[in-house]
Amino acid sequence: MIEGRTGKWETVIGLEVHAQVISKAKLFSGAATGFGAKPNTQVSPVDAGFPGMLPVINRFCIEQAVKTGLGLAAEINLHSVFERKNYFYPDLPAGYQISQYLQPVVGHGRVSLDMPNGTVREIGITRLHLEQDAGKSLHDRHPSLTYVDLNRAGVALMEIVSEPDLRSGEEAGLYLRKLRSILRYLGTCDGNMEEGSLRCDANVSVRRPGAPLGTRCEIKNVNSIRYVMQAIEYEARRQIEVIEEGGTVEQQTRLFDAARGVTRPMRSKEEAHDYRYFPDPDLLPLVLDPDWVERIRADLPELPDARKARFMSEYGLSADDAGVLVAEKETALYFERVAQRRESKVAANWVMGDLFGALNRLGVGIHLSPVSAEQLGALIDLIADGTISGRLAKDVFAEMVASSADPAAIVEAKGLRQMTDSSAIEAAIDTVLASQAGRVAEYRAGRDKLYGFFVGQVMRATQGKANPALVNQLLKKKLAG
Amino acid sequence: MALDKETVAHIATLARIRVAEAELELLANELSHILSWVEQLNEVDTTGVAPMASAAAASLPMRDDAVNDGGCREAILGNAPRVARGFFTVPKVVE
Questions:
Q1: Which residues 287-306 on chain A approach chain B with CB closer than 8 angstroms?
Q2: Which mean pLDDT values do the consecutive 10-residue runs of chain B (95 residues) have?
């Protein structure tokens, strides 16, 4: 809810996400899909729209779309149709995009969002359809020319359309993160927004609470989740201002200018929205075998929601901790390797605390972690079996981050093994107490607060290696006289 | 269904075909005739028949996910009016 000058307004958002399908070859040709290849080296005559070329569909791309539909708890349409969406642009060589329109391969589904207040919000999915990507236009290589690279032309995309169920930029961000997480768990899209494998258009309108939907504006191709959130917040406030000043919102397509944090209208493409869809005569309807769909369903991996529930019941983690650990598939796998046969709460704390901190400082994802799950597990074992103290473990961990060495090797090389020999600890305590006779007298006279000071001195005298429990036990006895 | 001159002009714009004002009337007539010829199909009773995207009694042929095409940039760019550094080039279109 946004407070305007004239009262409360509600933002209504629906998102259209284009997710690039993970596949070796394109949707209708045998050209490769890899990112970053030299321009026009991954183009077949089909992708270039050469006359007489016929599209032949890639079975695996259909499987990926069906799998995604099942992961979104959606209806799978056993009969769907490819249509031509007609428009002219230099990076669309055939003059039409093969897409699905009236009969998409996937129908209604849903995504559950874990809201910050602990509740769950269900966001409806309207549909998912398969279509070809266009090529890439580069406008900044030449003063008067646009350069066109068709490597991306024909790569399979899933367009995933949400219901207008989202109510703020923040919710849109949660939805995108959740959707990306599901796609990554399924292995159907890598979710990399920087490389354009996940792109988002946002339909934004505002209304008085409970009133009918307002006129919407579509914000095109925003390339990060943070920008989507910013663009929505800006756009909602812009529309409220227009209405509150007596104007009306004009239905239009807008672009987000990330540098200035504003949306602005796209130069209007006259008649651009008259796509004249019709069934592609080169392609028969796509008919799926229900048994095949059921086999894909049976092979679905554990998805984030189910994994979160399992982390809570199996490892006794809180909903928040489980949510953090399952958000990225790699993090969940890492945690499970660390938690194997170990105290799960301890494992979770190390992963979310020290490890996340280190990865943040290094600016890398968990798949590039300098500390492997096995190494972190070994460190936890060294604490559990008393080889090192929890305090020294932090130093060992820092060293592991710096050198990727095994914890046991670091402990040996640096002589950090915990001192558990009570006579050695006693000797250290005696030395400390002898040198601090004045404070000992004060303590014995009732200044209890000095206890921590003595512990610190003993730990320092033993370079932090003394077993803290033994120090406590022996120190209390000695101070008691 | 009869097409008027405005509709023909609109279709021509969408198809990026330049049609002289003088030709519009003639084209509207010709296209209207073609449409009314096709509209004879409306006489067929299709009650209870689901709309179909194809009349072919075959299923969509499919391919395995294997890379067996592409890697032929010279051939792809060969017919282009203008190329530079491996790209097609066109007069600047910028949004």
A1: 287
A2: 90 92 95 95 91 79 97 96 96 80
